[in-house]
Design a protein that fits this description.
With about 500 residues, this protein is of the alpha+beta class. The protein contains 19 helices and 24 strands. The strands form 8 sheets. Strands 18-19-17-16-22-23-24 form a 7-stranded mixed beta sheet, with helices on both faces. Strands 3-2-1-5-15 form a 5-stranded mixed beta sheet, with helices on both faces.
Length: about 500
């Protein structure tokens, strides 16, 4: 037998999945680790925890499956994006990694914008954001000069795992796109940006395409993971780029929506398309010679989770007694409310907003609340409001000329047929599920399969290993009914923007 391994290094834990060459998961295992928040708004993790989790998860899937080490033909890596890992000349970790959700670097982002202006978006395809890596590098240089002086290697989270597996300091284009340092149209480090920010290019890893071979498992790594020495390790991808491969989003017209804590739309593009306003992100695709456009709204599934935690105690008790998922009960209640939730609109800005508003002061709101409204109306309004926010991002994609006619749904919210139907009606295109729920890990494994020569291309790997599930078709009458509510939703943020900013100062 021949197998592939996908390692998905997430924020809450690392999940490793062993697949056969047809994309069928054979064994999986997850190990969690802590998130450190030394100050309000900061987020860090210890890279040693990641490596420990990789060792344990790889050994476990090998033991569970009974697969022989030599039957593993390739290892692919997926990981949380934007994190900063700093190593000294001996490859030792210098400080905890600063993560994607860390908000300490606004000052440095303002400095980057002031230094480069519009050229930053022209070259890196994205504005300077606190989540991205460049601001973190400048923060360490300004606040921890001794650490920066000793730093000889800067890596992204999954690329630290590559180093531990192979001894190679390398990255690939999809993950590097989220650093504010990559010339995204030309798929290489930007000498212009690095020079302007006074960052030594020698600190950065060698650049690869996502499906290229970046190294092989060393003897030392083999001893602690159970892999065979010499096993191929491919470039892999950032988590969303890997999820795109794992959902088959590798051709024009295809995209996926993730309704997890955040909401993401991720679309394939054969040409570089950059939003000059920076409302959505353009990254290099894990498909060689292609790009992706990505939005990120901050409180998608989080909005429904917040409502569950604050107002659905009775539903949680009933769900526990019946052995059901509380979200099923909430959805049943929402389904009894009509389109438009009896003229109630929810703005899902619980954590501020990223795409397409770029406003950290924006806040959530129910608009139109009256004595007639039930809990079911409010739940439906939350689900519709999140869907409106995704539609608003998709409108930006279409404004940019990025066609989307084939949409997959992922994440916890994507498992809800009711929520998928709302999305299909608002998008005006079918919304499907994927048979395998292993998105990023499967995408990483497919990339490893290309690197190992099991598939001739990423597209061929997807045809073999990615299989569609249920499909929600848009209903024309529903689409027409949603449209006036959606247009009102679009008008509410501009009306409330000044009030949000004033509220932030009180």
């Amino acid at each position: 037998m021949e197998y592939l391994i996908g390692i998905d290094l997430g924020t809450s834990g690392t999940k490793t999945v062993l697949f056969d060459v047809n994309g069928v998961p054979v064994a999986s295992h997850t190990v969690e680790y802590p998130l450190h928040q030394p100050r309000n708004g900061w987020a860090e993790q210890d890279p040693h925890d990641w490596w420990g989790a990789v060792q344990e998860t790889v050994r476990t899937v090998l033991n569970k499956s009974g697969a022989k080490p030599e039957e593993i033909k390739g290892v692919g890596l997926s990981g949380q994006m934007h994190g900063l890992v700093m190593l000294d000349a001996q490859g030792h970790v210098q400080r905890n990694a600063i993560l994607w959700c860390d908000g300490r670097t606004q000052k440095q982002c303002d400095e980057i914008t002031g230094t480069l202006g519009q050229r930053l978006i022209d070259v890196t395809a994205n504005p300077a954001l606190p989540g991205f890596t460049a601001g973190k590098i400048l923060w360490v240089r300004e606040n921890e000069p001794a650490v920066y002086e000793k730093c000889r290697h800067i890596l992204l989270p999954k690329d630290y795992i590559r180093y531990k597996l192979t001894g190679e300091f390398a990255t690939e284009v999809s993950d590097a796109s989220g650093m504010n340092l990559l010339d995204v149209p030309n798929r290489r480090w930007s000498g212009e940006v690095l020079s302007a920010l006074d960052i030594d290019s020698g600190l950065l890893g060698r650049m690869y395409e996502s499906c290229q071979v970046t190294g092989a498992v060393t003897l030392a790594a083999a001893e602690v993971t159970g892999l065979a020495p010499g096993t191929t390790v491919a470039g892999g991808a950032g988590d969303n780029a890997a999820a795109a491969i794992g959902t088959g989003v590798v051709e024009t017209g295809k995209a996926f929506t993730t309704l997890g804590t955040s909401g993401v739309i991720f679309a394939h593009a054969d040409q570089v398309t950059i939003d000059p306003k920076g409302r959505v992100h353009t990254f290099c695709s894990a498909v060689p010679g292609a790009w992706t456009v990505m939005s990120c709204t901050l409180a998608a599934g989080l909005s429904l989770q917040w409502f569950r935690n604050q107002f659905c105690g009775a539903e949680r008790e009933l769900a526990a007694a019946q052995g059901r998922d509380v979200y099923e009960l909430m959805t049943d209640s929402a389904a009894r409310s009509p389109i438009g939730a009896n003229r109630l609109i929810y703005l899902p800005y619980l954590m501020g907003e990223r795409s397409p508003l770029l406003d950290s002061d924006a806040r959530g709101a129910f608009i139109g609340l009256s004595n007639i409204h039930t809990k079911g109306d409010m739940i439906r309004a939350v689900m519709e409001g999140v869907a409106y926010s995704q539609r608003q991002c998709l409108d930006v994609f279409r404004e940019m000329g990025v066609d989307v006619s084939d949409m997959a749904a992922c994440g916890g919210g994507g498992r809800s047929p009711f929520w998928r139907q709302i999305l299909a009606d608002l998008y005006g295109c079918p919304v499907k599920t994927i048979a395998s729920e292993q998105g990023p890990a499967l995408g990483a494994a497919i990339l490893a399969g290309v690197g190992a020569g099991l598939y001739s291309s990423v597209a061929e790997g997807c045809k073999v290993a990615v299989h569609a599930g249920e499909i929600q078709q848009p209903k024309a009458e529903n689409s027409a009914a949603y449209e006036p509510f959606y247009q009102l939703y679009r008008n509410l943020y501009p009306t409330l923007r000044d009030s949000f900013h004033t509220l932030a100062t009180l």
